[in-house]
Design goal:
The protein is mostly helical. Helices cover about 75% and strands about 0% of the residues.
């Protein structure tokens, strides 16, 4: 039987890994992967707290998870479009190149 603390520990490890990737890497694609890992950790928390709540018939945790996934999909689509534009202009996915776009 999987317990709530075990799921929360897995979620914390996922979040810490995503945060480490997002802070250390300079490649925009890897930063987006780190951000998606952090969103996944949040979704895992929503589902875990829903599953172990006193009233699991109420679908509040699942609804929060679905909204979070939808927001993550919108965020990654806009972010990936920006990365593609930066790559077309500078021929590199490194975010240091985006620093030169200032006016």
């Amino acid at each position: 039987m999987i317990t709530l603390p075990a799921i929360l520990a897995l979620s914390a490890a996922l979040f810490a890994t995503g945060l480490g990737i997002a802070l250390i890497r300079r490649n925009a694609i890897l930063i987006f992967i780190g951000i998606e890992l952090m969103f996944g950790a949040g979704v895992l928390n929503f589902v875990a707290f829903w599953r172990f709540s006193p009233d699991p018939e109420a679908l509040t945790g699942i609804l929060f998870a679905m909204f979070t996934i939808a927001i993550a999909a919108a965020e990654i689509s806009v972010g990936l479009a920006l990365v593609i534009l930066i790559y077309r202009h500078h021929q590199t996915p490194e975010l240091d190149a985006a620093n030169r776009l200032r006016g």
